[in-house]
Amino acid sequence: MLELNAQHIHMHQAAADKPAALALLGEVLVADGLVAPGYLDGLRAREAQGSTFLGQGLAIPHGTPETRDQVFTTGVRLLHFPAGVDWGNGQQVYLAIGIAARSDEHLRLLQLLTRALGEGDLSEALQKAESPEAIIDLLQGAPQALALDGELVGLGVAADDFDELAWQGVKMLKRAQCVEPGFNASLPMSQALPLGDGLWWLSSEQSVQSPGLAFVTPTSNLEHLGQPLNGLFVLASLGEAHQAMLERLCNLLIEGRGQELSQATSSRVVLEALGGEVPADWPSAQVPLANAHGLHARPAKALTEVAQAFAGEIRVRLAGSESAGVSVKSLSKLLAMGAHRGQVLEFIAEPSIANDALPALVRAVEEGLGEEIEPLPAAGETEQPVIATQPDESAIEQAALRAGDQVNGIAASPGIAIGPVLVRKPQVIDYPKRGESPAAELQRLDAALDKVHAEIGTLIDASQVVSIRDIFTTHQAMLRDPALREDVQVRLQNGLSAEAAWMEEIESAAQQQESLHDKLLAERAADLRDVGRRVLACLTGVEAEQAPNEPYILVMDEVAPSDVATLNAQRVAGILTAGGGATSHSAIIARALGIPAIVGAGPGVLGLAPNTLLLLDGERGELLVAPTDAQLEQARGERAAREERKRLADERRMEPAVTRDGHPVEIAANIGAAGETPEAVAMGAEGIGLLRTELVFMNHSQAPDQATQEAEYRRVLEALDGRPLVVRTLDVGGDKPLPYWPMPAEENPFLGVRGIRLSLQRPDILETQLRALLASADGRPLRIMFPMVGNIDEWRTAKAMVERLRLELPVADLQVGIMIEIPSAALIAPVLAQEVDFFSIGTNDLTQYTLAIDRGHPTLSGQADGLHPAVLRLIGMTVDAAHAHGKWVGVCGELAADALAVPMLVGLGVDELSVSARSIALVKARVRELDFAACQQLAKQALMLPGAHEVRAFVGEHC
């Protein structure tokens, strides 16, 4: 970790300009053994990208990701320029802090500097400083105060052991916004310090936002490492903020008064002993909040205006809270309280103004703070029941389908289904808003969570489909999510029923997930709501509807995993949904069970009359309502032909795919985990064309180390038995975040920091993954590709890391390439092709970026078609550029398995098609039907067509 040290400050330096200052700084860093001489180029390059001027006479020169390999040892050196250096735009720098860091070790230092800048203008003081010690004092600024109040003291909390007691302390620090996710994992549990009198001490500096101390005692006597455990301190350490409190604690223990803390029955006793923030003993008044949306911006502003009319201090807290409260004159503090309707506010005012201020505040709240309010229910009454959400009936009625109507949806699972319709809509579940008591409601909730967890376990044991088991396993993890349960508990404390608290928190969390925009990984929102409904049904005793025994087509807004529990694959002829996309759970479940399906068909399908006969083509995405006898006969004949075609394709699945005129096309598999490899090989895969590595990282609470990753990659290579493996390095970002890699929210994550852009910001994580990949090869064919590359500098930086590591971990058969997902990469393919070993085209992202259509958009996704001539032209440009330099090109998006797209991709010269394991046999069979020369001519003609619809019609006519 970078720390400021007086020995590293070079006082009274001089430089004519910024380049001279950077050169001087580079000399110091080199002379002290921190960096190689080449690091100076990184300092200059970073300034060219943007000034490192921080403000108030400070600059923080540092290198670029490309020059991090020039760093030998992490450290900082400070140069003092009393005469100042022009850093550009008239900005004068009196202190340059040169940073040598291989990853993000400098962020803690920046946090301290930013805090120092908030204390007033440092420029003049830095200019006049006479000693290194004076510089240190200026930079450290005023220390942050240690948070220690009634909200951070928990007496008699339920805990069965040391770890659980520590978790209770961490939860209080999280609620006080002292720590970030990851703090709990950073606590050195094995190094807990016994203080005597049954008191213990734990602390960490990692994932700390502001210093804070939590103190918790257990309800019953516990032991830890053979010693009594009567109380535990959990410190979020930042700087020296805790020193004064620690001295008081030491004095108290020396005087033999430790039992005053471990046996305390009031948080006030603890706070007074440790010097914490004790609530003022001032006059107070309480009033319930009746505003429908709680204390949001408008009523909060009205409340501050009332308080500001009085000269003294006024604070507010939730009744029953032991905190000191927040200032009523601070709008931000009021909003941060998050007070809800029905909660009781307690105002505390200085005695000199209390007689006037308290009645005025109470009256303002009772009158609604500028809003119309509904009276709160009388004691013993409950709010009107809340009704679970259901589809908009007016929208369904307006779009209702009639006999003969044809609807085009999204083809989700191939096959033709014929049968009567069964429309299943979400059940309406009534439940009370208010609960009996927090303890009773929590007991009910826990019982429901345990029951649903066991039910899902039974479903996992009974399911033979890996993808469905994976979904249910995720649901079990959600039920055991401590953060989710903790947030529900907070709502229970506000008087809500178990049902209301659970559903409100589920909906809040689901809406947060929906803001991620990525439809593959943001399906967690659908998962959350599905889990939420299961638990709600359990709490209210509502049983799921039973399906009929005769074959039918199931119609729903979206098929949730829990619906699988009552879904008989032998009885469900087809699945039709109003919403969802090709990557929704409805599609995943249908494909896994081999049931023909169309998704995203619109709300009209929910208005179909019971028992209406439907003809559903899951390969074309076409639905026919009440088909004629002639249409049914034709469909049955086509279904029989398709089934025979699939049977023949399966028989030849292990044979290579070669066109009629002798042109070979390699057919590989897309997988997301090592365990899928044997099935892919058994289904005819000639290799793995895309191994998504995100799951390796998502399945851990912290970044997996090299050994963990290496074991996963070895499993894939061993199962391939000499076949090539193409691995995509970690592809996450603001749209696909990891819990241990916090990222700022982005307005449009698809156009933000993701893929290789993000990996280059954390070269330590990327380097660990590359090491694991190289170490796992053992002479077997390994292909590494970087995602979301948009320019050649990103490629060169990533490739340089591979080349450096390759000297240490040589691989005999290694190729390094990139994914073509961004149009800019396709457009500069002639340049990239000179340096890469191969291209792999991700048509899903390439299509949405080219056409500016989110492929998960509820109404536009059907237009995001990779057969659009604009997308085909980019694919053709990429292939031409690669072949001109003797490089190969693969396609690993959904388009590679599209029967109408295969002739176009083959005709454009694509060398490899990578598809799901289930699609391999049919794609091979499709290639064998084609004539390569004819496909080349067709592709040229298709490029001249106006749109995807015309291309599909053209291919269908000629192939």
Describe this structure in words.
The protein has 959 residues and is of the alpha/beta class. α1 packs antiparallel against α2 (39-49) and α24 packs parallel to α26 (763-777). The protein is globular, with a radius of gyration of 32 Å. The two termini are 63 Å apart.
Features:
959 residues, 35 helices, alpha/beta
Please give a quick description of this structure.
Helices cover 40% and strands 17% of the residues. The chain is α/β, with parallel strands linked by helices and 959 residues long. The protein is globular and about 90 Å long.
What secondary-structure arrangement, pairings included, does this model have?
Layout: E1 9-10, H1 18-31, H2 39-49, E2 53-55, E3 58-59, E4 75-86, E5 92-100, H3 106-117, H4 123-128, H5 132-140, E6 153-157, H6 162-175, H7 183-186, E7 193-196, E8 199-204, E9 212-218, E10 222-224, E11 227-229, E12 231-236, H8 243-254, H9 259-262, H10 267-274, E13 284-288, H11 297-307, E14 314-318, E15 326-327, H12 331-337, E16 344-349, H13 351-366, E17 386-387, H14 393-398, E18 406-408, E19 410-413, E20 416-423, E21 430-431, H15 438-462, H16 466-479, H17 482-493, H18 498-514, H19 524-540, E22 552-556, E23 572-577, H20 585-593, E24 597-599, E25 613-617, E26 622-625, H21 629-651, E27 657-658, E28 664-671, H22 677-682, E29 688-692, H23 694-698, H24 706-720, E30 725-728, H25 756-759, H26 763-777, E31 782-786, H27 792-808, E32 814-820, H28 823-827, H29 829-832, E33 838-841, H30 843-851, H31 869-884, E34 888-891, H32 902-908, E35 912-915, H33 920-929, H34 932-942, H35 948-958
